[in-house]
Amino acid sequence: MREEVDSPLLFIIRRGLKEAIEQNAGVVVLDMKTPGGSLGTTFEIMEALAKFPGTTITFVNDEALSAGAFISATTEEIWFAPNGVIGAAAPVLGDGKDVEVTMKQKIVSYLKARVRATSEGKGYRGQVISAMIDSDYELKIGEKVLKGKGELLSLTATEASEKFGEPSQPLLAAGIAKDVIALLNARFGVDKFTVKTLEVTWSERLAVWLRMIAPLLLGVGLLSLYVEFKTPGFGVFGVIGIVCLAIVFLSNFVAGLSGHEPLLVFGLGVLFVAIELFFIPGIVVLALTGVVLMLGSLVWSMADIWPNEPITFSGDLFVAPLRDVGLGMVVAIALALALARFIPKGWFFSRLAVTDAVAGAAQLAGSAPEIGAGASSLVGRVAIAATGLYPSGQVEIDGRRYEARLEVGAAPPGSRVVVRRKTDFGLIVDREEAAGA
Fold first, then answer.
1. Does 3.90.1150.10 match the CATH number of domain 7-188?
2. Strand-pair category, 55-65 with 85-87
3. What is the phi-psi region of residue 384: left when phi exceeds 0, alpha when psi lies from -120 to 50, beta otherwise?
4. Per-domain boundaries in the chain
5. Mind listing the pLDDT tens digit for each residue in 98-146?
6. What is the mean pLDDT of residues 311-326?
7. Structural element, H or E, at residue 159
8. Whole-angstrom Cα distance, residue 161 to residue 322?
9. 373-436 has which CATH code?
10. Which region, left, alpha or beta, applies to residue 80 given φ > 0 means left and ψ of -120 to 50 means alpha?
């Protein structure tokens, strides 16, 4: 834990705690050097630490000020580097200025209650942290006044290790060590442990911004995949859709909200939709199941689910993910309406349709022709796929285009197909080789 307490630190701690639970780790140590930070993020870190079933230890290396003192109070033990300092935890505004008096009283009262709740059974800790929060709080043990009114308490490693009472116990420190390895040697014995270290990197900082624009990424991704399914072949829309949604899943993983499982479920949903569109069209339940799996996996990836806790479908757990996915769908619809309104007149729309002649056949000017009464005579005729049939598209007969759909499989542009029957929505066709077989 370095620098300020903010979202990147929350992400790495939350992800690390979940990994520790899954790997049956016995101890989590916070190697702390922080001047403080966001109070809201501090509370989220404190709540996350409370979910870890093993031992939690703070190593003050070499300062745990303000928010750092609150987080330290949540852990079971607080160790110090020889030059470690802890304290000065009064709430201030983001710019460092004092909070207005009435509001400060409310915040201090709440913080002291939180500290008392997390410090029960931990010696003098509740009193000590309260003296760090409230300048009007007098810290007195026995006949000795350790902090009078009108100042905030800060402690050095030596002061935090001083013992009081009968039986005597340290004021705050569980011990002093030169580094984390020395702490673990003293606590558990030499070579009695293995260590995995996690630290904030650029990925956590990037994930903060990506989480902020998650609905936009979702909207662009869902719309791109829809357009890809409606156009021949696989191209830029598919790439954009996959990249946008992959970024959403990755940012959720970095934020410690999900593992890899939601991504696998999303892939299964995409597979179901692809099977419906390309191979066995008309089975609505398969495509519907795929869409449900895709949307469900997106919600799952954004939910803060812990390995050691049963999943309860509560509003607190899923309200934010459902909100983000809902906003993503709104963005997708809004973008689709904008495309329908503006793009047809531009260069972009022309690339959604195949406009090149197929085998020298004539093009029909204007919009695609409607199938008239004479289309019944086309049954049995050989046609050329003017667009890819995946499974729907257009075929060309005698220089005229008709809407058509393959009953099974797919066909690239230029393929020869045979008309099998006519429906109100177009022609049903088969690949010529399949028809001959």
1. no
2. parallel
3. beta
4. 7-188, 212-349, 373-436
5. 566 666 677 778 877 877 787 777 888 888 988 888 888 888 888 888 8
6. 77
7. helix 157-161
8. 48
9. 2.40.50.140
10. beta
